[in-house]
Amino acid sequence: MKIDGTPYRSIWREGEAVRIIDQRWLPHELRVVALPDRTAFATAIRDMWVRGAPLIGATAAYGMAVALRADASDAGLEDHWQVLHETRPTAINLRWALDRMRAALAPLAPADRPAAAMRLADEIADEDVELNRQIGLHGLKLIEKIAARKGRVNILTHCNAGWPATVDWGTATSPIYHAHNAGIDVHVWVDETRPRNQGAQITAWELNAHGVPHSLIVDNAGGHLMQHGMVDMVIVGTDRTTANGDVCNKIGTYLKALAAKANGVPFYVALPSPTLDWRVRDGVKEIPIEERAEAEVTHVQGLDPEGRIVQVRISPTGTGAANPAFDVTPAHLVTGLITERGVCAASPAALKAMFPDLSA
Ligand code: MRU
Questions:
Q1: Residue 327: pLDDT above 80?
Q2: Does residue 272 carry a pLDDT above 90?
Q3: Closest CA to 61 of 38, 32, 30, 43
Q4: How many angstroms separate the CA atoms of 180 and 185, rounded?
Q5: Which domains can be identified in the chain, with CATH numbers?
Q6: Residue 1: its pLDDT value, please?
Q7: How many Cβ atoms from other residues are within 10 Å of residue 347's Cβ?
Q8: Is any ligand 1 atom within 6 A of the Cβ of residue 239?
Q9: 58-81 pLDDT per residue, tens
Q10: Cis link prior to 195 (omega < 30° from 0)?
C-alpha cells in the first residue's frame, strides 16, 4: 500500500539487505531499518518491531536466509530454526514458514543454501501478498451484499490485521480496501486494542493514509454500537485457527464475538491458509497464549507536548498486571472464515472441503 504516494511493503529486499518498517514508532514516525543478522531478526520479532501473524512468518523466512550466510551447516539450519521459532509462541505462521524453509533447504548442499533460502523467502513474501489480495476479493462480495441492502457499511475491526501485519494488503483490511476502491461507502470502527494499541496506532494510521473513513473507539464501545445497529459486520484477523475452526486472535477478540452473537451481527475472520494449524483441534485447550510484559499494561506510549515519543505510567507503582496477549473465539461464534479460496463455515467439515490438499 502507499505511504504519502510511495508504494511500500512491510518487509522488502534491497539487494542482499532486508529492510522492515520498525512498527514500534507508528503512527508518529516512519522508521525503516535493515536487519543484518539472526540476532536482529529474532529481536525484531520478539520485541514487535514487526508483528502480525503473516509478517512474523515472512520475517522468520528472511531471518533464516540471512542466518544461513553465517552458518549453512546442518547444525546451523537446526539452530536457526530453534532461535527464530522461540521468539513468539502463538502465531502459527512462524512455524509454518520455518518448517517450509527447513524442508526445502535441508536436502541442498550447504553452499547452495543461502541463495536458495533468499529466493524461497521472496516467494513466501510474494505469496502472502497474493493470498491477501484473494481474501480481499472474497470479502468484497460480503460487503457488496450489505451495501446493496443499506448503502453505508459499518465494519468493526480489532487490533491490526492490516497491511503492516502482512507483507501487503492485510487480511481483515483487504476486503475493506477492495470495497473502498470499488466506490462502496465503507466506514470502519477501529478498536484501540489495549494494551499495545495496535488499532489506535497502526490500523488508524493505515486507513487514514488510504482515505478510508474510520472512527477510533475504545475497546469497550463495540457492544454498545452493536446494540444500536451501528455495526453491520465484524472482520478480524487471526494468529492461529484450528482444524475445528476455533480462532485465536488478539486479546479482546472473544468479547467482540460474544457481543456480535448476542446482537445478531455477522462475525467474520480473514484467514490465509498458512494461519491454519491442522494439528490442533480445541483452540482453548491447545493453543499457547503469549504472556507479555506487565509494562505494556501499566504504561502507555504516545507523543509528549514537545513531539517526543514517550511512555507514561497509568497505574500506581506497586500494582502488578497480567498481560495475556491473545484469546480464543470458539468456532460456534464465527459466522464465516474468509480464506484465499472463498468463504466457508468455521467447522472441521467446511475447512476440510475448502483445503482438501492441506488438511491432515
Ligand atoms: O501481537 P500482534 O500485534 O502480533 O497481534 C496481531 C494480531 O492479533 C492480528 O490480528 C493477527 O496477527 C492477524 S494479522 C493479519
A1: yes
A2: yes
A3: 38
A4: 7
A5: 2-127 (1.20.120.420), 136-354 (3.40.50.10470)
A6: 92
A7: 16
A8: yes
A9: 999 999 999 999 999 999 999 999
A10: yes
325 touches ligand 1 (CB under 6 Å)? yes
Q: Tell which one of 51, 193, 326 to mutate to probe ligand 1, the residue whose CB is within 8 A of the most ligand atoms.
A: 51
Q: Is 53 in the pocket of ligand 1 (CB under 6 A)?
A: yes
Stretch 290-317: mean pLDDT: 98
Q: Is residue 360 over pLDDT 90?
A: no
Q: Is 329 in the pocket of ligand 1 (CB under 6 A)?
A: no
Q: How far is the CA of 164 from the centre of ligand 1 (A)?
A: 10
Q: Treating both helix axes as pointing N-terminal to C-terminal, what angle do 53-70 and 113-150 enclose, rounded to 10 degrees?
A: 170
Question: Is 239 one of the catalytic residues?
Answer: yes
Q: At what angle do helices 53-70 and 93-105 cross, to 10 degrees?
A: 30
Helix, coil or strand: residue 125: helix
Average pLDDT over residues 80-103: 98
Q: Which residues is 277 bridged to in the sheet? A: 242
pLDDT at 145: 98
Ligand 1 atom index nearest CA of 158: 10
Ligand 1 touching residue 171 (CB < 6 A): yes
Cβ of residue 198 lying under 6 Å from some atom of ligand 1: yes
Which candidate in 128, 168, 239, 246 is catalytic? 239
What is the predicted pLDDT for the residue at 41?
99
If phi > 0 it is left, if psi is from -120 to 50 it is alpha, else beta; for residue 98 that is alpha
- Residue 239: alpha-carbon gap to chain centroid: 7
Which cell numbers hold the place of 141? 462480495
**Ligand 1: centre distance to CA 126 (Å):** 19
Provide the mean pLDDT of the chain.
98
Average pLDDT over residues 219-233: 98
Three-state SS letters, 12-24 = EEECCEEEEECHH
Q: What percentage of the chain reaches a pLDDT higher than 90? A: 99
Distance 29 CA to ligand 1 centre (A): 20
Prediction pTM value: 0.98
Identify the pLDDT of residue 246: 99
